[in-house]
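Chain A, query sequence.
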Amino acid sequence: MKKATQVPLITLLITISALMAGLLVYHNRAEILDSSKFAMIIILTILLLIFAAYNTAQRIRDRNAGLPIEDELTTMLNLRTSFYAFRFSLALWFILFIYHAQFADVEDLLGIGMLGSAAMYGSIWFYLRYRGNVNA
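Chain A, predicted structure.
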């Protein structure tokens, strides 16, 4: 797949995901509003959508400016982010498995683990992009 077609494809996938999540919430609104864990899941989902939208907008701006979509800094940033996100995600899963008795459903445990891992990746990416030393 060409890199120029990846940006509109990512935007389309984000839009479809947001619409599906909205329909799911609308359809199950009575059950969902009673859940205390729902607020945490919504906050993490919104953070992930913000990260994806920002990343997509940045790629569109770079493409319109004639810059390459992938360069050395982006490659190093993704490599370093993946390294730290993997390590922190392992710690998150370890903590979740220690406290697995606190969760009523296994789906809640898995959902929080997956959203937490993705949120860690996004937050580490933002930190390294604007504050950290990518080349260290």
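The CA atoms of residues 8 and 29 lie 31 Å apart. The helical segments are 3-27, 29-33, 38-64, 72-98, 106-130.
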